[in-house]
Amino acid sequence: MCAEGIRTLYKEHMIEEYASVEEPFYIPVHDEEEIFTAAYTQKIPVLLKGPTGCGKTRFVQYMAWKLGRPLTVIKGKDKGSEHQGLPLVTVACHEDLTASDLVGRYLLEGESTRWIDGPLTRAVKAGAICYLDEIVEARKDTTVLIHPLTDHRRILPVEKKGQVLEASDGFLLVISYNPGYQSALKDLKHSTRQRFIAMEFGYPPRDVEKAIIQHESGVDEATAMELAKLGEKVRHLKEHGLQEGVSTRLLIYAGELIRQGIAPRRACEVAVVWALTDDSEVQKSVEEVVSAIFP
Amino acid sequence: MLYDSIENIEAGLQKFPPAVLQEFRSTAPAVQRRLSSADFYLWGKEGIALAEHSFRSWEATVEYFRATLVVLRQLDFSHLSPWTQGGKALAQESSALACAFFRASAETLHHLSPDRLVDWALLGRSLYKGTWRSSSLACRLFDLSPQLLIQVSLDEMKKLSLFLDRLANRSYDLALEALNLAPGVLAELEKGDRDALYELACLLAEITPRDAKLCFEVAPKALNRICRDERRHFLSLVALVAQSGAQESIPFLFFHEGARSLGTLDWALHPKLLSLAEELVVDSPLAGLEFLKNCPAVLARVRSSDLEPWLREGQILLRDSPEAGVDYFRLEARRSLEVIERLASSMELSRVSDVLQMYCCALTGRSILILPTMKLTEKNLGWASPDSPTTEGNAIFLPPVINRYPHKDENFRWAKVAATHQTGHIELGTFDFSFDRPAHHFPDLRPSLEPKEAAGEKSITDFQRFFNFFPERKLASETFTVVEDSRIDHQVKEEYKGIKPLYEGIQRDSLEARPDIITLPLREAILENLVRISLGQTRGLAVSNGLQSIMKRAVHLQAQSRSPGATVEDSAEATIRLYRLLVSIPNIVAPSEAWQDMDLDALLDAETLEDMGDQNPAEPPLDREAHALEFTPPQTVEFRGELKPELVQILSRLERERTQISAPALQEAMDNSTEPQLKDKDLERPRDQLISNLVKEAARRERASSSQKRNGLDPSQESLERDDVLSFLYDEWDFRAGDFKPRWCRVEQKVMEEGSADFFERTLREYHHLAIQVKKQFELINPEFQRKMKKLPDGEEYELDAVIEAMVDRRAGQTPSEKIYWRRNKIERDVAVAFLLDMSASTAEAVSEMDIYSSQWLSRAEPPLYHALPGSRPIDKRIIDVEKESAVLFIQALETIGDTYSIYGFSGYSRENVEFYIIKDLGEPFSEQVKRRLDKIAPLQATRMGPAIRHATAKLDVQEAKTKILFLLSDGRPQDHGYSRDGVEKDYAVHDTRMALVEARRKGIVPFCLTVDRAGHDYLKTMCSDMGYEIVDDIHTLPKRLPALYRRLTT
């Protein structure tokens, strides 16, 4: 990507080629690693449930790396192989996501047209893990599209081209879903739901969360512990004024701010209190918790 | 005739009724013995002269004879004559008077010097005005004289009689009553107060006699409540009130209520308060009265120095508008409460309980309620102190008003620390104490203490089992409290670093209130030292000579129980050891020179402890003979409040397995425990009462938690939801004050009863032409909501403008926009309407009465529809029926277009009881039930529109519709009982209703008033000046008009 004398300030990857080289940081809390590995081997699609910011996406990244295999083997050299993770194709679902956004579409090129594959097609071809984030946000007709991929058929019909694609061996469909937003409108249909094994994610226990915060934000252990404690306490307020508990992600943000020299109380105020809620009463309560923990 | 012998006198007496002679005969011998014979005959002669004076004056003679003997014991004959003359003079006026005079003489002479006898007679005489009522008053004065003269001098009695005289001028009954009260009243007052009281009473007697008498009656009670030096001032204020032309009974209320509320306050405040009240009285006596009355309530919130700013604010208002000012001082104006809130240093728990509740919930992960302490003490479960924070395991109780510091923030901090301490008990497991669980930092002594045969039996709770070890149970449980509180404080501070500075600040403040150690007996002194150490004191701990080693061991035990990871079991183990140390020393007071100051470091010095060995310390050189005092628990640390672990465990055990606990076991547990404190000391069998209360509470909790599991409902809402009646409080607008009366009206929301659905069907049949017509019109509404949407990425057709633009872009080599289509988009109609139906009694008026005017003048051209229909008699129809019919057609129409709508009815009586009926709620689907409820709409009571509008507004406000409409249908002006106190009800009601409508509009709701009152133009103009309103002149057109109006409003 570097021409001589010119250095690009950004990195571009082909979807299929984008895979972690370094091991993503993830601390298994339970047997999720085992289960996912088993599902991958058996080609069973996986549904990840859990509140926002609890590490679902990180887990998929981690597993993709973990399950990866050396892609390039250079003959004659005994140096062994460079470990390369499985490619991971992530699609954030939204309500305007159409089927062609996933599968692909024709584009005009001069007088002719050219077909371009969508991310799902490319994942199917490349044998990547395809991660559909927040699947409930997608339109109903889009979710139906993945059905043939998730049963024994493992095929993707490409209607516009009149083709059917067989999935490569490595392909696995992983979707995530946050049951916290339960509303009548946004629930997963059973016909979709029952094609996946479901793994439930929660916020990690205090010690694990401490380690995560410490690693991710680089704060000292004591501060990380206090942040984890704050997380635990604030999560008690779920259903008592808060719709969602504070995510590990937000706690990490708070930690990062602290590391940048922001006073801890202030950092928590912007990263936790105000980020969580607009209700002034609840804000006040959470602030009291913050001020009880941080001097 | 000469009366020079007994025979002569007797003969002279013969002409009178025999009683006279009889009396003479019975007294004469004794009198004869005491008097010279000349005097004796003179005496007899006077008697005859007295009797001869008038028809009934012989009665006076009888009394004269009878009294003489007694009087003679105190008087010599020289005084006897003026006495006789005084009586005779009275007899000139009225024999009854003379009778009373003679009758009372004997007694009176005990308290009156003989030479004042004449004055006394004249005093009575002065009240006599020649009428029988005045004579009875004067007689009564003589009768009561002996009693009065015990208390007061004759001169003072003159002042009293002056008051009575004035009062009698207005009403003899009142004067007589006052006189009868006088001995009792005067007995309880001091001389100075009495003089001032006579002055006031005289003044009041002329202005408002009833108040004078009432004031006189309550004077002792009232005056004795007031600071001695200020009583005269206070009385002069009452006079001022009376003179300023206040209504009757205001002076009395001022006197009575003012004194009562002053009595609840510190006497030192009285001068200030009275001079403030005086300023107000000058402007408005009523305001002064209300000010005094509400002073205690205001002072509970603000410091006394802030009272004046509050008053000034009200004074400005008062000068502007008297009514507004009075409401201000009555605390019935929002402004007033706002000023108090601004000035207040104290913190009301209710204002922060939500925040604290969530805070505690966050810390513990359990849903913990924050409640005022009364909620616990009133249940009488064994907690009795209203000022101490405490917990019973499920909720944290804090004082309702916290007023310890001069600033609100500081008070909040105190509450936060107190709540944190209580959550500490819950979070750190005080109440999870288990007898068998080993401690972390101590070798377990507990199992070895318990006799083998008694292991675990009979005890209901682990705490009970534990405390049963100790012969001096109280000492043990107090020691435990000290150790456990200290552990909690320590661990809370470690766990929550952020609150540590606050916590330590409050701890320091608590230290200041601790008693002086050297005044305490030895055992208590050691515990007190431990309390102080736990509050952070490190220097100047007083230790009695000879007890240094014990103190050191105690301090070490305490430190050990605070080591990291210590549990409640560690506290228990520490308690056992501390208890042993404490019982080894007598609880006696040591002389003040036998103390020495020690620092915590010295006490904690480990080496010296080693030296002493772990054996029992050497016998301290103490005076064993001194009298040992009973153990008194250490003074409560205020922010820590009360800890009753045994009761908490009993309660939670009862909750879990009530049936397994036998009554005798419970009884024994309660008898042993030192914890429970009962509110009513005089209950006959307090223990039994307590036990039954505990069982009840446990049952309630069990129910609450099971229903919580079932419904996910907050148990505190349980009581609100009963009987389908929900209460809401709303402010009301007072136009004279230009302010809201806070929380003034109570709206009771009920679901309408169900009747039969026939009415609905019948109406539809009856109006079926109209119904079809309306339905058609409403169906036409829909297409009006189609709109052309432009610049869309896809659609029915190219949008020409956009296409051209895109082509231009392409030529220019830029990326054209993809949004080149247009489409007819169906915009969803998003309307929510609340239909508010007047159900006041006036709607019972028959429509036919109105027909006299309307049918002749207005509806002739277009006869009402039902005339044309068979089977309906116009005479039967009442306004309400037409309203109901309109509602039916309205529903029919609304169902066609699918708007969200509700039908409410309202009526009620007074502000306490505004009834709000739900016939169909917003979001409730239309059903058979709704049809049946419509049938039950009937005229009820008055029309208080404001609260009903506010309630409907509140309901609409939570709807997520673009257009919200409040449709008010009434038959006349708003009116209700007690809308206002002083004759401006009509205006008041109209203004309040208007304000309610304005509030609705501010919330984005379109109000619309429809009335069938033809006289409505005048007040509707005020009520809905810039809002939509319409007057339906002919009520029969209402069913037709209503849907039409609605259509116009929403399209």
The largest sheet of chain B has its strands arranged as 8-9-15-14-13-16-17-18
Largest sheet of chain B: 8 strands, mixed
Distance between the termini of chain A: 49 Å
Q: Specify the helix fraction band of chain B.
A: 55-70%
User: Biggest protein-protein interface?
Assistant: A-B, 23 and 22 residues
Enumerate how many helices of chain B there are, as a single number.
44
Strand content of chain A: 5-15%
Per CATH, the class of the largest domain in chain A reads Alpha Beta
Strand numbers in spatial order across the main sheet of chain A: 2-5-8-1-9
Describe this structure in words.
The complex is a heterodimer of chains A (about 300) and B (about 1050). By secondary structure, chain A is α/β, with parallel strands linked by helices. Chain A folds into two domains: about 15-200, 3-Layer(aba) Sandwich (Rossmann fold), CATH 3.40.50; about 205-295. Helices cover about 40% and strands about 15% of the residues of chain A. In chain A, the strands form three sheets. In chain A, strands 2-5-8-1-9 form a five-stranded parallel sheet, sandwiched between helices. Chain A has a two-stranded antiparallel sheet with strand order 3-4. A two-stranded antiparallel ribbon of chain A has the order 6-7. The longest helix of chain A is centred in the last third of the chain and has 15 residues, at about 220-235. Chain A is elongated, with a radius of gyration of 22 Å. With about 1050 residues, chain B is α/β, with parallel strands linked by helices. Among the domains of chain B are: about 1-125, no CATH class; about 345-425 and about 645-725, no CATH class; about 450-635, no CATH class; about 790-825, no CATH class; about 830-1050, Rossmann fold. Chain B has 44 helices and 18 strands. In chain B, strand 8 and strand 9 (about 740-750) form a beta hairpin. In chain B, helix 7 packs parallel to helix 9. Chain B is flat. The interface between A and B is medium-sized, with 23 and 22 residues.
